[in-house]
Amino acid sequence: MSSNRRDFLRKATAGAAGIAVGSSAMGMSARSYGRIIGANDRLGIGIVGLGRRLKAYIPPVSTKKFNVELLYLCDVMKSQRERAAEMFSRKVDHKATLENDLRKVIADPKVDVIFNATPDHWHTPGSIIALAAGKHVYNEKPCSHNMFENELIVAATKKYNKVCQMGNQQRSSDHTIEIIKEIHNGVIGTPYKAIAFYSNKRGECEVQKKVPVPDGLDWELFQGPAPRREYTQETWDYFWHWYGWDYGTAEAGNNGTHEMDVARWALEVDYPNRVDVEADKRHFLDDGWEMYDTMEATFKFPGDKVIIWDGKSRNGYQTYGYDRGTVIFGSEGSVFVNRGIYILYDRAGKEVRRSDSTSNESGTALGGGGDMTTAHVKNFFDKIRGKGELTAPISDGAISMAMVHYSNIAYRIGKGFDVDDVTGKMYDREAMKLWGRDYEPGWEPKI
Fold this sequence. Notes:
Shape: globular
Strand order of the largest sheet: 14-13-12-11-7-10-9-8-15
CATH topology of the largest domain: Dihydrodipicolinate Reductase, domain 2
CATH superfamily of the largest domain: Dihydrodipicolinate Reductase, domain 2
Helix content: 25-40%
CATH architecture of the largest domain: 2-Layer Sandwich
Structural class: alpha/beta
Distance between the termini: 9 Å
Mean pLDDT: 91
Strand content: 15-25%
Number of strands: 15
């Protein structure tokens, strides 16, 4: 454990031990008095990472019946903090503290919950720091950057006995829950195959060039666990997804996480026993995008079940009639389901029934958000308060994440491989070299 990490965890513990409570409601404003009512059940919230997912958190964090208080808005970019403060000022009646360093937010004993919406390389390290400090964590997808972290985040959740939910919000979608339950009860016979897909029309990406660090950006803290390098333009603002493997997990981690998770849920499978991938960069060949933008990954599972991931980042052709979703095939029929609808077909392909969701969850729009996310956050809050179970516990989300990591590894080594479907380990020495990653010394995630 680094000296920095020991120090802030020590301070967090000391601060928690020194809390003193005592006041009178006399003379308080109505707003201050209102905060006392139900205070024993109130959750103090810190949102870390104020980029494109921010809008998705505004409804659940500002909904009064959820009884939470926004304490911190944290981001390594000053303009993001200011933007977030302005957005929340329209929805909540108090000002959250603006903070640059997530470690300071975590060290505050008044914070009960961390929303971790940082770039991918910070998801597991930041969440483990929060869990170790006694916080519950809503860990955005992907919950890990690599397979080493995938195991670590699950182990940390168990060790510190806190609630940790991954942001795969379709697990809290009423219409999806309904049709998945029907699939499990035999509505399409025996499900044997699922195609998870995503089609977008992302444009060109600037070729990286070294430029001065933008005003207001803490580049050192942005990099955090990642090996150090000089700043290149636009890296901090979403392009980190496509600029190599230091920060992002490509489209499989960015959007495939959601659809592959639904496919695995429908087929009731865990780790695959075989992974094969065909992927390449096929658009804007001279731009700055450094990884595949087109992928077809095939996962074979025990029981002769198959999941195919069809990801097209920069070709908007809707192969299956929609821009994203999952098709599940069974011995007696099939189902299409996405964030807005499910359609049940018989074996002849005739539509039997459809259910249009009332959800307004975004499809391929950057950042997403909508009432599906609100329901998922509510489920998270309910579990913290001992009411019900998580729809996406990190132990299950991490298995879906493994499919993301397998597909990326197969692309990077240029071949498929067999997997131990019990442990998740890969039967390939070259693949296992990518089980983890290199970390900046002193920043290695540990539990």
